[in-house]
Amino acid sequence: MISPSTAHSVRVLIVSSHPLFGQGLRSLLKERRTAGVEVIGMAANTDEAAAALKTLAPDLVILDYDDEAVNREEFLAHFVEGETPMRVVLVSLKDSGQVVVYDRRAVAASQVEAWLSGLESHTPATGSQSASGNLRRDGMKHFVIVGVLVVIVTVLVSVALDSISLLPVQASAQAVPIDNLFGLHFKVIAFLFSLIVVFIAYSVIVFRRRKGETGDGAHFEGHTGLEIVWTIAPLAIVFYFAFIGAQALAETREVKSDAMEVKVIASQWSWRFEYPEYGITSSELRLPANRQVLLKLTSTDVIHSFWVPEFRVKQDAIPGDTMVKELRVTPTLIGDYKVRCAELCGRQHAYMESPVIVMEPAGFEAWVIRQTALPKDPVERGARWAKQYACTACHSADGTTLVGPTWKGLFEKQETLTDGTTVTADETYLIESIVNPNLKVAQGFTPGLMPQTFAETLTPDQINDIVAYIKTLK
Predict the structure, then answer these.
(1) Distances (CA, A) of 89 to 16, 18, 65, 75, 116
(2) Collapsed DSSP state (helix, strand, coil) of residue 96
(3) Pick from 451, 455, 430, 126: nearest CA to 298
(4) Which pLDDT score, from 0 to 100, does residue 338 have?
(5) 314 Cβ partners below 8 Å, 6+ apart?
(6) d(CA 65, CA 128)
(7) What is the dihedral of CA 319, 320, 321, 327, to 10 degrees?
(8) 61 versus 245: which is more confidently predicted?
(9) How many CB atoms lie within 10 A of CB 159?
(10) DSSP classification of residue 404
(11) 36, 96, 459, 473: most buried, per Cβ within 10 A?
(12) Is residue 326's pLDDT more than 50?
């Protein structure tokens, strides 16, 4: 054995395409204060190594065992088994920043024992196959532990998500396939959350830098198999969700022959519901349980969107007679809900709500009978029409100022108009304001907000009933 104190310095050439390999090896040599060793150069490939051998004349070549860019077999065949053999040692820095030396028996180990013995964490007795096997076993052990932890955390997160009731109560047949789809999404979210958090937490705890360690971590690049898996697996999941999503859509749009038609008319900022089968108009949406309802949606002004969260489904209501949208709902749970507008439609968008009442079929039939039996008093009928056609959403009966003038004390009042003129709010003015609301607009109120369609949707008798009702609000 050559002692560093009695022989000249060992001139070392490092062959690796990774700059960090050379830096790590230099750091280890410096840290261990290894005497008699001098790194004279770096070569990134076999050709550069051949040129460096001629110009630098190194005593020893250290080859990066983990560098796939350098053909190890070709290198050893040329420089170890060739006509002018060199002293070559294969070194790996992957094992927690320590040095692992491979195939020393074939590369004049006695010449490097003096300075490598202080750096080696272990020297495989059976060469590279034994070391690789140990690394694989250690890696597999970590993957098994992480896999078990991922499964446990996924189950715990899924149970937690189920327990906090992320979705509203399920109140329609259409909600069933949609909720099933949501449930699968929540499980995938729980798995992805666990996969990320567990891997990060495990790595931070198990592979943390411990006291006294100053070297760099193991250097590695890519994993073709893993990249293939994490490309194909998400793609397969996306295709699967697309398939079950299409199935859920087909279920929600299933047509039943006994469906009851309800026309839904949206306005700023109210809902009106018409039942052609019964000749009823209402500001409440009353539906019999377990019977499919065909909703035909239109708007009198801007785009609105019909949405009852407990039913899960929603559909836009678009202005124009030719833009009638359809939505099918089969209520299954008796109770009181609310229809909301899910499309920003103006300054009172947040308050555009109407009751949705799911009833027993017998109760629904009784309601139909009550609605079709009109009161004999025109004032009572006028109050009903005002509520059904959502007039009370913009005009109060108690003096409160809303979007439009209050009806309290309006009859025979002197109204100042936007052009500065005044007019008496008599029967003629009130009827004119209902059928042509933009003709004479009261001062302080915005033209164009009141629907322009009451001349078609209200009969003359209904308009007269509403005027009779306004007269009584003194």
Answers:
(1) 13, 17, 9, 11, 10
(2) coil
(3) 451
(4) 95
(5) 305, 306, 307, 308, 327, 342
(6) 10
(7) -40
(8) 245
(9) 10
(10) S
(11) 473
(12) yes
Q: How far apart are CA 20 and CA 38, in angstroms?
A: 18
Question: What domains can you pick out in the chain, each with its CATH number?
Answer: 10-123 (3.40.50.2300), 132-252 (no CATH), 260-372 (2.60.40.420), 378-471 (1.10.760.10)
60-107 pLDDT per residue, tens: 888 888 787 777 777 777 666 555 566 777 777 665 445 566 654 444
Higher-pLDDT residue of 400, 99: 400
User: Residues 298-315: what's their mean pLDDT?
Assistant: 93
Query: Model confidence over 425-457: pLDDT tens digits?
Result: 888 888 888 888 888 888 888 887 787 778 877
**Which SS3 state, helix, strand or coil, does residue 467 take?**
helix
Three-state DSSP state, 331: strand
Q: Do the Cβ atoms of 436 and 346 come closer than 8 Å?
A: no
Report yes or no: 266 and 304 within 8 Å, Cβ to Cβ. Answer: yes
Q: What is the pLDDT of residue 15?
A: 86
Sheet holding 280-282, edge to edge: 280-282, 270-275, 260-267, 293-299, 325-329
CB 107 within 8 A of CB 87: yes
Q: Are 100 and 77 in contact (CB under 8 A)?
A: no
Cα 107–chain centre separation: 57
Positive/negative CA dihedral, 65, 66, 67, 70:
positive
Quick one: which of 49, 94, 41 has its CA closest to 72? 49
Compute the CA torsion angle 400, 402, 404, 408 (nearest 10 deg).
Answer: -10
Residue position matching structure tokens 């140990």: 134
Q: What is this structure's pTM?
A: 0.56
Output the DSSP codes for 349-360. GGG-EEEEEEE-
C-alpha 11/C-alpha 8 separation (Å) is 9
- Spatial CA neighbour of 130 closest among 95, 98, 102: 102
What are the distances in angstroms from CA 165 to CA 48, 153, 159, 183, 255?
65, 19, 11, 11, 30
Backbone angles phi, psi at 145, to 5 degrees: -60, -45
Residues 473/425, Cβ–Cβ less than 8 Å: no
From first CA to last CA, the distance across the chain in angstroms is 118
Residue count (the chain): 474
Structure tokens at 395: 């005009």
Rounded distance between C-alpha atoms, residue 382 and residue 244, angstroms = 51
